[in-house]
Design goal:
Oligomer: single chain
Number of helices: 11
Order of helices and strands: HEEHEEHEEHEEEEEHHHHHHH
Structural class: alpha+beta
Low-confidence stretches: none
Number of domains: 2
Distance between the termini: 24 Å
Strand content: 15-25%
Largest sheet: 7 strands, antiparallel
Radius of gyration: 25 Å
Helix content: 40-55%
Mean pLDDT: 91
């Protein structure tokens, strides 16, 4: 089921991306040679007007093939060629896929934020200020020791500990202070599930830890940021706000991982933070097990990531094509066709090699 959900999600994201290119190309009068569901080889195809609509064997997303998209195409000088359209028209066609993925993410996050009662929890990996929304902090459980006081009380990984004996808890140090002064005392802990915001109470008794030399529950603790969309404007624009904050936070986290890798000359943190198809399929399995809202959150995050990745100025990606259009707009001269095609070919080869490397790393993670 998780694999099926993964294929469906990936197909929807890529198809909507390609649909953006398709619709904008049609609007600009650019010929579309083929709109494919899945990737070749082809199972079935039917030509309607100038376009072949096909179904292909590999069930991952789809593709759009435009007339004159390749600067060395034999039809590059045709009236309906991509290459013959204005800078503005070509720019709109190139970025349409990215815009489609961003809009999809916004819509998904509207649904998620509404389903969670305008209260969304985000694990705090690094210190960060989320914008345009009210935020509070929660302590959550990242690990539970077997046969510990927490394990016996029914505390699970991912639970947030929001109250102890009716008093609010807002920091790890505050919770640790209470636990360390309560050896042998029964504590009533109010727990919240960040996935669905449901609460429950459990009774746990701290016991002396020989390893820590202090009373403990037997849990590893982390910190959550709870984003509260309280005002009318925050609720109305919650989809956009959450999309913006997700992008801003993700870029900051990844930037710090790269910075650490450069300083320490160790790429392990970066490789652990990047996933390919195998890794994403595994994450999808975890999201599906947590329910529809978590699956939608993952889908929104993947849609944003697809948009960000594609707008990067890397040859073979939309951002790379857009970069050549910008160069043309600045210099008032088209980039030499053979140079552009060579750049896209090399970029595509490097991207394939990177995907293979990441996939290999994902497979190694499965056996750790």
């Amino acid at each position: 089921m998780a694999i099926l959900v993964f294929i469906v999600i990936l197909s929807i994201l890529v198809l909507l991306h390609e649909l953006g290119h398709f619709l904008m190309a049609k609007r600009a009068g650019i010929g579309v040679e083929e709109f494919g569901l899945g990737l070749p080889p082809r199972i079935w195809g039917k030509k309607i007007g100038e376009t072949i609509y096909s179904v292909n064997w590999l069930p991952f997303g789809g593709f759009v093939r435009l007339v004159g998209e390749d600067p060395l195409d034999k039809n590059v000088n045709a009236k309906n060629s991509f290459y013959q359209k204005s800078i503005l028209q070509r720019s709109l066609v190139v970025v349409a896929g990215v815009v489609s993925n961003f809009i999809l993410a916004v819509v998904i996050f509207y649904i998620v934020v509404f389903a969670l009662g305008f209260k969304v929890s985000v694990p705090l990996l690094i210190e960060h200020k989320f914008k345009f929304v009210n935020e509070t902090r929660q302590v959550f459980v990242v690990d539970v020791s077997v046969n510990s006081a927490a394990d016996k009380a029914g505390i699970k990984n991912g639970d947030s500990i929001i109250k102890v004996d009716g008093g609010n808890i807002s920091s790890i140090s505050e919770l640790q202070s209470i636990i360390r002064s309560s050896e042998g005392k029964v504590l009533i802990l109010t727990l919240e599930n960040p996935v669905n915001n449901k609460t429950r109470e459990v009774a746990a008794t701290p016991a002396f830890s020989q390893q820590l030399k202090v009373p403990a529950l037997g849990v590893g603790l982390g910190e959550l940021v709870v984003l509260n969309y309280q005002t009318l404007s925050q609720k109305v624009f919650s989809g956009f706000i959450h999309s913006y904050n997700t992008i801003d936070y993700s870029i900051k986290v990844f930037g710090q991982l790269i910075g650490f890798a450069v300083r320490e000359r160790d790429i392990t943190p970066v490789s652990e933070g990047v996933s390919g198809p195998v890794g994403i399929a595994q994450i999808t399995s975890q999201a599906v097990s947590l329910g529809a809202v978590s699956t939608l959150q993952l889908m929104g995050l993947l849609s944003l990531n697809l948009a960000i990745l594609n707008i990067l100025p890397i040859p073979a990606l939309d951002g790379g094509r857009f970069f050549f259009i910008i160069v043309e707009a600045i210099t008032r001269r088209r980039v030499y066709p053979k140079v552009e095609k060579w750049a896209h070919s090399v970029g595509f080869a490097l991207l394939l090699a990177l995907i293979v490397l990441i996939t290999y790393n994902d497979i190694l993670k499965l056996f750790r």
